[in-house]
Specification:
five-stranded antiparallel β-sheet; 1 helix; three-stranded antiparallel β-sheet; mainly beta
């Protein structure tokens, strides 16, 4: 029994009156967008001033900031078969008529909301049909 208690006793080393330990941890980069579509109706004959069609919430904790990219499937045109109607994307303060747009952001630590709007020029001789386009919104760390 004496041998057992001897092994369980703490061993005091001679040396410094201080000690230290280094703690390390990692926070992974996470970026995400949430798109909330509005109930906007585009009037393709009368045209529209910038009409809000969605609100995009951006979240990214990248230390060097992030980029939000918008890409139109039809290159900035609403399409119905072979008929097309060009439009302009507006994302916050940036706009594009070719269907691609990129916005560089600094990291803020909180979510950021940006309005996505569409501007359609007036046109009197539009071909009948159901027009559509798909805009993809992507977020990536810098």
């Amino acid at each position: 029994m004496a041998g057992l208690s001897l092994l369980a006793s703490p061993v005091w080393a001679q040396g410094s009156t201080q000690g230290s330990i280094t703690l390390r941890a990692t926070v992974a980069t996470t970026c995400a967008v949430t798109v909330s579509a509005g109930n906007a109706t585009l009037d393709l004959n009368a045209g529209s001033a910038p009409l809000p069609v969605a609100t995009v919430e951006e979240r990214c904790n990248a230390a060097n900031g992030y980029t939000v990219s918008l890409t139109s499937k039809n290159g900035g045109s609403l399409s119905s078969g072979t008929a097309t109607i060009a439009y302009t994307l507006q994302y916050g303060d940036s706009s594009s008529s070719n269907g691609t747009l990129s916005a560089a952001r600094d990291v803020t630590g909180v979510g950021r909301q940006t309005v996505l709007s569409v501007l359609v020029p007036a046109g009197t001789q539009r071909q009948a049909g159901q027009y559509e386009d798909t805009v993809t919104i992507a977020i990536a760390a810098k």
